Amino acid sequence: MIHTDPTLSAVRLAVDGSPYAEAAARYAALLSRRLALPLYAVHVIDTGLLGGASLGDFGSVGGDLGASTLAAPLVELGGAFEPAQGTSVYEALETRARELLGRARELAEGEGAEHVFAEVRAGFAADALLESVGEGELLVLGRQGEGTRDAARLGGVAERVLRRAPGAVLVTPERFREPRRVVFAYDGSEPAAQVLPYAVALAARLELPLAAVSVRGEGREEDPLAGAHLEAVHYAASRRGELTLSKHVLEGEVVPAIVETLQEGDLLAIGAFGEGRLSAFFRGSTTEALLRGAEVPVLLHG
């Protein structure tokens, strides 16, 4: 089943102090500006690392986060966290949250985003982040967070969010590149069908070409199923008369074939954790290999 054109209500940015945070903020700002959507930045104080403290231990921050709310100098996204001497850990974490959100807002506005709002939440990281996402919002987060020590792995929070997110999620690499093309990998699964309208809508609204790819079964000279998958994408794209579409049947193992076809400036769209041929490969360590090896932003839908 091919789903209808999605209605996007806002861009939701997950803000932390990881090396991936700046690129995530730049992608979120670009989407906010080009799609004329508000940008909501949220930082979660992970109480799972602090013995399960409640939100009341931290207070709350919301709204516009103007300069008057920033008592300390802004820190670089990705900078090291060192609590000031004489402050409690709760005060230090809330101060740092304000600093990170202030920096994210400054960066987003510098990239042209006009309506940027911010909030601090406390709770278990993935839970609190998912609870912050409203209907129709596109969630943007870096591939790894602050707690990930192995550069070869998908961050634990990112993986939990991807498995439970009710809508679309854009997972961003460490380096920002201006998007030049949307690549949609389609295997006929329900998650892929759910992300298809997002891929088509983003390509059309960002005025980018759309490349639809399917992977031929190994050892098959012809694969009618792969062709049928691409025709489904053609049908969805044909409803956008201004959209430039190319179709490609790839050969070989699924993940390497997709990674090899990617170019700098691509945005890859896939279905996550479904039942089709591609999604059979988008599980466990191979999911991490795809997100790591692609080095492009990846749009997924659960």
Structure description:
By secondary structure, this protein is an alpha/beta fold. The protein has two domains: 10-172, Rossmann fold; 181-301, Rossmann fold (3-Layer(aba) Sandwich). Helices cover 36% and strands 20% of the residues. Strand 4 (137-142), helix 4 and strand 5 form a beta-alpha-beta unit. The model is unreliable at 52-81 and 273-286 (pLDDT under 50).
Top-tier CATH class of the largest domain: Alpha Beta
Structural class: alpha/beta
Number of strands: 10
CATH evolutionary superfamily of the largest domain: HUPs
Number of spatially distinct domains: 2
SSE order, as H and E?
EHEHEHEHEEHEHEHEHHE
Distance between the termini: 15 Å
Q: Specify Rg, calculated over alpha carbons.
A: 20 Å
What is the share of helical residues? 25-40%
Summarize this structure as a short list of keywords or feature phrases:
alpha/beta; Rossmann fold; 10 strands
SSE arrangement:
Elements: E1 10-14, H1 21-35, E2 39-46, H2 89-110, E3 116-123, H3 125-132, E4 137-142, H4 156-164, E5 168-172, E6 181-185, H5 190-205, E7 210-215, H6 224-238, E8 245-250, H7 254-261, E9 266-271, H8 277-281, H9 284-294, E10 298-301
Parallel strand pairs: 1-2, 1-4, 2-3, 4-5, 6-7, 6-9, 7-8, 9-10
Antiparallel strand pairs: 5-10
Write a brief structural summary.
The chain has helices at residues 21-35, 89-110, 125-132, 156-164, 190-205, 224-238, 254-261, 277-281, 284-294; strands spanning 10-14, 39-46, 116-123, 137-142, 168-172, 181-185, 210-215, 245-250, 266-271, 298-301.
